[in-house]
Amino acid sequence: MLSDPDTAEGLTPAPPAIDGRIADFRDELAAGLRQPLDTPADPGAAEACFRRLLPFSRRAGITRLADLTGLDRLGLPVAQAIQPAALSEVTSLGRGLTLMEAAVGAIMEGLERYFAERIPSSDCFLATADELRIDAAMLENLLLPHAGTGWRSLPIPWTLAVDVASGAPQPVPLELVHTCYTDPEPQGDGLFIRTTTGLACHSTARDAFAHGLFECIERDAIARAFTTHGFFDRRRIATSHIGPKVEHILSVTRTQGIAFALWHAPSPTDLPVIWCQAIEAGASEPTLALPTEGHSAGFTVETAAASAMLEALSARAGAISGARDDQTREHDRKSTDPLVADARRLILEATAAGTAASPFAPTCLRDVVDRVAACGLGPVLAVPVGADAEAGVACVRTILAGAQPFSILR
Question: Number of folded domains in the chain?
Fold first, then answer.
C-alpha cells in the first residue's frame, strides 16, 4: 500500500518523468505484442512455477494453500489461497486441469492483491485532472455517479500507465489501480468504481497484460448483457461440438448430475465472450442448490467456454467450502426455494440454442489492442503494479477507459 494508506502526504506534486521502470515495462509489452496467442503449454511449467512462487507467497502473507477438490464430487482440481491480512477478500480460488495449475492460479490471484495493496509512494504523485489535461471523456465510464465534473479540480493521487497502442506514458488515478479496500477509504478515493477488473499476475508482464486485457473485454461484454433485453432467450448456445476442452469437462461432470448452460455475450471487439451457469440437475436435495457462474473472453469460442465452465465449477467448490467472507446465509438455499426453481428452469429447460461464431480471429495481442481501439473501448492502458524477479511474477493492471464497468453483486 502507499506509505500511509490514510493520507496522500508525501506524494510529489507533479508526474514523474518516464523512468527506467516504465520504459522497461513499455519495451517488454511492445516486444510481446507480436507473439502468437495460441502457444502450446509446457506440461512441466505449472510445477516449476509453483516451486518458484512458494517462498515468495509466504512473504506475501499467504499462510495456507487448500486443496478443495475433495469437497465436491466432481474431481476437477480447485485450490484456495488464504491471506488473513488482505484488505479485500482473504481467499483466492485457482482452477485448472491439474492440481498444480489450480494451486498456481490461486497463488497468482492472491499476489494480485498483495502487489496492488503495496504500490510504492515513489510511483505516485498528487495532481488534478485539469492540471494533467486529462481528456474529459476518457474516464467518464469509470466514475461513480456522484462525482460529476467537480472531481477534475480535486487533487488526488495518480500513477503512470503506458498507452499500449502508442507507447506513451499516461497518468491514471491511483484509485483505479490499488486494492486498499479499507473503511475509511484512503484519502483521494471515493470517485471511481472499485473493481479488480484487469488486475492480473503472471510469470511475465506480457502474459499478465494479456490476462487483464481479456478480462476487461469479458467484463465489458457481461455488463452489456445485463442491459440487453431478452439476452437469456436469444443468446444461448449449445454445449456440444465446441471443442475437446469443453467435451472433457462435460464428460467429467455429466455422470455427476451437473448441467451447464452457455450464453454468448456479444462484445464490440467481436471476440467470443461466454457466460456459463452450472447447477445440479438430479431429483435429490442438492449439495449446492443455487447455480454458480463463470465468464470468460478468449481468442476462440473453445478457450472462452472451457475457461467459463471451469470458473463456474471452482466457484461451486468455493461456495461448498464456506470460506469466502462475502458469501452469507442468503447464498444457502433449498431446492424448494422459488429463486432456485427459476434458476433451474433457466438452465434445464430445453431452448433453441445456436452456435457462437467469432468473426474476429486474432493471432497476437497487437491484433486485440488495435481492435479494442477501433471499437471505442480504448485507450488500452497498462500499469506495472509490481514484480519479483526471483519468484518470476509480474503484476499488471489493465484499464480499458471506454469499457462498461461490471460491478453487479449476485
Answer: 1
Report the C-alpha gap between 238 and 240 in whole angstroms: 5
Average pLDDT of the segment spanning 325-352: 70
User: pTM score, two decimals?
Assistant: 0.92
**Grid cell at residue 100:** 498444480
Mean pLDDT of the chain: 90
Give pairs for 367-373: CB < 8 Å, separation 24+. Answer: 368/213, 368/214, 368/217, 368/269, 368/271, 368/299, 369/33, 369/164, 369/165, 369/213, 370/165, 371/269, 371/270, 371/271, 372/213, 372/217, 372/269, 372/400, 373/165
pLDDT in the model for residue 408: 63
Output 252-261 pairs: Cβ under 8 A, ≥24 positions apart: 252/74, 252/75, 252/76, 253/74, 253/76, 253/278, 253/313, 256/73, 256/74, 257/281, 257/282, 258/74, 258/313, 259/347, 259/348, 260/309, 260/312, 260/347, 261/236, 261/346, 261/347
Q: Alpha-carbon distance 148 to 181, whole Å?
A: 22
220-245 residue pLDDT tens: 999 999 999 999 989 999 999 999 99
Residue 380 lies in a domain: no
* pLDDT, tens digit, 9 for 90 and up, residues 98-156: 999 999 999 999 999 999 999 999 999 999 999 999 998 999 999 999 988 899 999 99
Number of other CB atoms surrounding residue 200 within 10 Å: 27
Amino acid at 87: L
Segment 15-25 shows an average pLDDT of 80
Q: Is 236 within a domain?
A: yes
Range of the domain at 265: 220-348
The answer to whether 176 touches 142, Cβ cutoff 8 Å, is yes
Strands 273-280 and 78-82: unpaired
Report the pLDDT averaged over residues 360-388.
96
In a domain, 328, yes or no: yes
End-to-end, the C-alpha distance of the chain in Å comes to: 29
Cβ-proximal residues to 326 (8 Å cutoff; 6+ apart), any chain? 89
Residue 112: strand, helix, or coil: helix
Task: Enumerate long-range contacts of 149-156, CB under 8 Å, 24 or more apart.
Answer: 151/191, 152/128, 153/128, 153/129, 154/128, 154/188, 154/191, 155/8, 155/126, 155/127, 155/128, 155/188, 156/8, 156/126, 156/127, 156/128, 156/188, 156/191
Q: What is the CATH number of the domain that holds 303?
A: 3.30.160.660
Residue 240 lies in a domain: yes
**Cβ atoms of 94 and 86 closer than 8 Å:** no
